[in-house]
Amino acid sequence: MIITPQRGAKMGVEVSELDALAAPEEELSDLKNLVYTSKILVLKGQDLSPADYVEFGRRLGEVETYYQPMYHHPEHKEIFVSSNKKEGGMQIGVPKTGKFWHHDYSFMPRPFGLTLIYPQVIPQGQRGTLFIDLEKAYEQLPAKLRKEMADSWVVNSVRRYFKIRPSDVYRPVSEILAEIEEETPEVRHPAVFPHPVTGRPVLYISEAVSHRLEDAEGNPLRDGLLTEVLEAVGQLDTSFTHDNIHLQSFEQGDLLMWDNRSLVHRALHTPNPEPTVSHRVTVHDDHEFYPGIERQ
Ligand code: 7UC
Ligand code: FE
C-alpha cells in the first residue's frame, strides 16, 4: 500500500497498490486509521466485481443494507445503486441521489462510520463529489457559535429528500408523508460529539436532514442558530466557492472511502443525459458512532 497526499487538495490521500481482498488484516486496520485522519481515501486501480466489493466492505466491518429496496443492486442488496442508465429498458437503482449536503443515514437511529463509493460509469462532463470537513469547520467556527453549539442536540429527518417511488404514483401526498413519518420517524443526535478515533469534536448537522436544534432537555435553541452555523461552515453556499468546500473528482478504477462522521457530502450530477452509474457500500466500523449511542 502506497500513500500519497492529493496535491493541492484540502483533504484526502491516494492509496495505490492495495489488494482489497488479499491485503493482510494489519494493512486494513492501517487503512481504517488513515481514513479518520485523512478523511477521504482514493483507492486507485481497483477492479472488483460487485461480489468482491461487498466482500471488501465486510472486511472493513458490518455492512449496512439501505432500508429502501428501490436502491438495491439486483444481485447484491448490500450495494446502493445511483444510476440514470436504463438496462434492458429497466431502471436499476435511483437517479440523482444525494444532490444536497448530508451525512449518509444521519436520519436513522444508528448511522455508520464509513461510506464507500465505487463509480462504475463516469460521465465526461461534471463529475465528482463535494465535501466539507465538519471536524475542521467546528474548530474554525467563531467562538460564540461554537459555545452555543457545544452541548446541543439536532433533530433529523429524511422527509425533505425522500424520493417518490414509481409505486407512489397516484397516491395522495398526505398518505406518503404519513408513511415517511411512520417508517423513518425523526431522530435526535448530539449536534457535536467527540470523534471516537481522533478525539476531536465533530459538528454533526446538515442542510438536507437537520431540522432543529435543542438543548439536552429538548427545549428549542434560539431561532436562526441552525441557519447561522450551516452558513458559517459552507453548507448554504450555492456557488460552492466557500473555503471549506473540497471537490473530489475520480477516474475509472478509483474507489472512494470516507469518514461519514466528520464529512458532509453532496453529489454533483451531470445536467445532460450522459450515463452515470455509481455503487455504494456502507459500513459500521469498530467504534460506537458517538459515545453512548447504543444505550440511547
Ligand atoms: O436518494 C437519495 O439521495 C438517498 C438519500 C435520501 N439518503 C442517502 C443516505 O444514506 O442518507
Ligand atoms: Fe450520500
Strand content: 25-35%
The biggest beta sheet reads: 8 strands, mixed
* Number of DSSP helical runs: 6
What is the element string, with H for helices and E for strands?
EEHEHEEEEEEHHEHEEEEHEEEE
Which features characterize this protein?
binds fe (iii) ion; 18 strands; binds (3~{R})-3-(2-hydroxy-2-oxoethylamino)butanoic acid; three-stranded antiparallel beta sheet; eight-stranded mixed beta sheet; alpha+beta; 6 helices; 296 residues
Helix and strand layout, with pairings?
Blueprint (H helix, E strand, L loop, with lengths): L1 E4 L7 E4 L8 H14 L1 E4 L6 H11 L1 E3 L15 E4 L2 E2 L2 E2 L22 E8 L7 E5 H6 L3 H7 L3 E4 L16 H11 L3 E4 L1 E3 L6 E3 L6 E5 L10 H9 L12 E3 L6 E5 L3 E5 L9 E8 L12
Parallel strand pairs: 2-3
Antiparallel strand pairs: 1-2, 3-16, 4-18, 5-18, 6-7, 8-16, 8-18, 9-15, 9-17, 10-11, 10-14, 12-13
The structure holds (3~{R})-3-(2-hydroxy-2-oxoethylamino)butanoic acid and fe (iii) ion.
Written overview of the protein:
- The chain is of the alpha+beta class.
- The strands form five sheets. Strands 1, 2, 3, 4, 5, 8, 16 and 18 form an eight-stranded mixed sheet that branches. The chain has a three-stranded antiparallel sheet with strand order 15-9-17. A three-stranded antiparallel sheet has the order 11-10-14, with no helix packed on it.
- The chain is globular and about 50 Å long.
- The protein starts with a strand and ends in a 12-residue tail after the last strand.
- The longest helix is centred in the N-terminal third of the chain and has 14 residues, at 25-38.
- The protein has helices at 25-38, 50-60, 134-139, 143-149, 173-183, 225-233; strands at residues 2-5, 13-16, 40-43, 62-64, 80-83, 86-87, 90-91, 114-121, 129-133, 153-156, 187-190, 192-194, 201-203, 210-214, 246-248, 255-259, 263-267, 277-284.
- The model has no long low-confidence stretch (mean pLDDT 96).
- The structure holds (3~{R})-3-(2-hydroxy-2-oxoethylamino)butanoic acid and fe (iii) ion.
- (3~{R})-3-(2-hydroxy-2-oxoethylamino)butanoic acid binds at residues 94, 97-98, 102, 104-105, 158, 161, 163.
